[in-house]
Amino acid sequence: MILDVAGSNPVGRPIAPFLIYDGAMRAILKRVLTPPLVLIAAALILLEETLIKWLQRLMARLAALPLIATLEERARRLPPYPAMILFLLPGAVLLPVKLAALWLLANGHEVWGTTVFIAGKLAGTAVGARIYLVLRPTLVTLNWFARVEAWVFGWRDRIYARVKAMPAWQRAAAGVAAAKAWLRAQLARRRGWLARRFAAARRQVRRG
């Protein structure tokens, strides 16, 4: 068999140019698709590291209320499968809210539809995260749930580690950190200014 100069391909079937073309296309696609994918992953990571943590702190404050504390204590005593039903309940309860948001969007009410969808998503995330935190010790007694949980969080951690190792993510994270520092400085300055104005007003009232 006669071979061409590119390697082991028979004459008349030059595969090497196609391999070069395929490699070039992969490089172009990687260059084009990486930035938006990094932005999406960065948005998800920032959502979890900021908004979800803020919602968790809010729900922890609500859990300090006597009624909520009593309900959570009763939930902790549930058997595994009733606990699983309670864990899945927020998604079922919020399904009509999501359908209503889609109906609003489909009928031209973009603002209201988006508002209802975001509000429902935030409420579902906050309540679902709190229920998961309360019920997790019971849920992990189910072997299949423990395996699924380990797989989901392992997959998430691998994706996060890969994204955070990218230069684009590191630049975005540095920009977000700088923006947060600037915002905290502005808020501190505003609080100081308001405190000084309040103190001045109190002194003026006392003088009067």
Molecular structure report:
With 208 residues, the protein is mainly α. The chain has one domain. It is built from 6 helices and no strands. The chain has helices spanning 16-63, 66-76, 80-106, 110-139, 143-164, 167-207. The longest helix has 48 residues, at 16-63. The radius of gyration is 27 Å and the shape is extended.
What is the topological layout?
Layout: H1 16-63, H2 66-76, H3 80-106, H4 110-139, H5 143-164, H6 167-207
Key traits:
extended, 86% helix, 6 helices, mainly alpha, disordered N terminus, 208 residues
Number of domains in the coordinates?
1
Share of residues in helices = over 70%
Give a quick account of the main beta sheet: strands, pairing sense, barrel closure. Answer: none
Indicate the proportion of strand residues.
under 5%
- Average per-residue pLDDT, rounded, comes to 76
Question: Would you list the SSEs in sequence order as H and E?
Answer: HHHHHH
Rg (C-alpha, Å): 27 Å
> Helical element count?
6
The count of β-strands is 0
N- to C-terminal separation?
Answer: 109 Å
Task: Give the overall shape.
Answer: extended
Question: Unreliable segments (pLDDT under 50, ≥5 consecutive)?
Answer: 1-8
Instruction: Give me the secondary-structure category.
Output: mainly alpha
In short:
The protein is built from six helices and no strands. The chain has helices spanning 16-63, 66-76, 80-106, 110-139, 143-164, 167-207. The relative contact order is 0.08.
